[in-house]
Amino acid sequence: LRKFLLDRKKESQSGTCRSAESENQPAPHRTGKIGAALAWNYNLNYLKKFVPELSEMINESPLPDYNTVLLRKMICIVPSREQFPGLFHDEDETVKRVHNLEYEETVGGVLKRVYSSSVHSIKRDPPKQSYLCVSEFCTPVRTMYQMLDMGLLTNREELNQQIHDLLEALKEIILSEPNIIITEYNGSVRLSQVLSEIADVEIRKQN
Fold first, then answer.
1. Which of 105, 170, 183, 201 is deepest in the core (most CB within 10 A)?
2. Which of the pair, 204 or 163, is modelled with greater confidence?
C-alpha cells in the first residue's frame, strides 16, 4: 500500500509539472480546443442574434415576391478544403447571390452593429425547380486557416482536428434550434449539390 501511495504521489507531481509547463508555453503552443470555443462564440455572438430575426427579415424583403421556393432556414457550411473558400459563385457558378439580409443591434458600445447573411439561388437542371436559401461559409473556420498561416496551429492535421471539433460542437449546440442547418463541405462534390440535397429534404418538411 505504501508503495502504491508513493507511486500515485509521483504521478500527481509529474502531472502538475506538465500542467505548469503547458501554462508557461507561448500562446502558439497553447491553442487547446479552439474549434469548440469558436463554435460557442459563433453561436452566442452571431447565430443567436441573427436567426431569431430571420423570418421577419425575409418577410420584409423582396424575397417573398420571387417566383421561387424559399427555404426559411439558415444553412451554415463548415468548409474543410485546402483553402477557405470565397464567394459561393466563385466556388460553383450555378449558385448566385440574389439578396442580402441584415439585422441591426446596439451591442458592445456600437450603435446599430450590422449582422448579415446572403440569400443564394440554387440553379438546378430541368425539370427540377430552383431554390432560394440563406447560406454562408462558417466564418470561424476562416479564423483557423489564418491561425495556421500565422503558425498558431502547427500543421494541417491540427487544423483538420480543430475544424472537426468546431463542426461537432456546432451540431450539438444547435440541437434545440430548428432553423439552423450545419453541414460540412470538403469540395468532393459541387456546392450546388450540397445545397440542393439540403433544400430537397427541408422544403418537403416545410410543405
1. 170
2. 163
Per DSSP bridges, beta strands 110-122 and 131-137 are antiparallel
> Coil, helix or strand for 202?
helix
Confidence class for position 25, pLDDT limits 50, 70, 90 = very low
> Could you read off the pLDDT of 112-143 as tens digits, one per residue?
888 999 999 987 766 567 889 999 999 999 99
* Joined grid coordinates for residue 122: 440554387
Among candidate residues 50, 68, 70, 48, the one with its CA nearest the CA of residue 59:
70
Q: Are 68 and 130 within 8 A, CB to CB?
A: yes
DSSP state at residue 45: I
Joined together, the cell numbers standing for residue 56 give 421577419
| 27 grid coordinates | 500562446
C-alpha cell at 180: 439552423
CB 77 within 8 A of CB 42: no
Which three cell numbers, joined as nine digits, stand for 102? 441584415
